[in-house]
Amino acid sequence: MAWSDRDVFTAIDRVRCAFRSLAYRAACAVFSRHIVIGRNVRFLGPIRATHLAKAHVRVGDACLFSSAQITALPGARLDIGPRCSFNAGLVLAAREHISIGEDAMVGEYTSIRDFTHDHGAAAGAKHGGYRGGPTTIGARVWLGRGVCVMPGVTIGAGAVVGANAVVTRDVPAGAIVGGVPARMLGCAIQAGKS
Fold it and tell me: What is the pTM of this model?
C-alpha cells in the first residue's frame, strides 16, 4: 500500500500531537501537583504557560488546544470542563478564578481574563495594581473569533458571542450577543426545542 503525501503529513501531525500531549502532561506532573490534565486532552500547537507552579489548574477530559498563552498567578484557579475546544491564539489570564463549562467552543485569538490593570489608580496603569473578579463561561458556550471576555463576567450556558465582541457585563443563558461592548442580538435555538 502506497502512502500519499497527505497520509504522511497526517501521520507526522498525529505523532507531534501525541508527543506534545505527553510532554505537557509530564511537565505538569513534575513541576506542580496542582495541575490536573484529563484523559485524551490534545495539544495541537505550542502552549506557553507562565506562573502555573502555585496555581490550581484542572483541564477536563477530551479537550483540544490549538495553541495558547496561559497565565495563572499563585493561588489562582483555572477550571476547564470536559470536551472544550480552543482554537489558535487563546489567551487565558487568571489571578482569582476562571471557570469554563463543558463543551465550550472558543474561536481563535480569544482572550479570557479575570483581572486587568487598574487605570483609575493615581499611579497610572503601570504601577496602579490590578482589579477584577472571577470569570465564568457556562456549558456549551460558543465564543467567536477575537472575543475579549473582561474580568468578573459570567456568560450563561448555551450563549453565543459574536466575533470580535468585547464582553463587559454578564450574558444570560441562551443569549446571542455581539459588538463593542457586547449587546443582546437575540436568543440561541436550543437543540430539541422549538
Answer: 0.81
Which spans in the chain are helix H? 5-31
For 123-178, what is each residue's pLDDT tens digit? 555 566 667 799 999 999 999 999 999 999 999 999 999 999 999 999 999 999 99
Residue located via cell numbers 495553541: 67
Q: In the chain, helix, strand, coil percent, each to 5? A: 15, 35, 50
Q: Decide: 136 and 102 in contact? Cβ < 8 Å.
A: no
CA-to-CA separations, 36 to 25, 61, 80, in angstroms, rounded: 8, 10, 10
56 is catalytic: no
Pick from 71, 72, 70, 69: nearest CA to 55: 72
Catalytic entry in 34, 51, 97, 117: 117
Q: Cα–Cα–Cα angle for 132, 141, 145, nearest 5°? A: 80
Q: Are strands 111-113 and 148-149 parallel, antiparallel or unpaired?
A: parallel
| pLDDT tens-digit series, residues 94-122 | 999 999 999 999 999 999 999 876 666 55
Q: Which residue has the cell 443582546?
A: 184
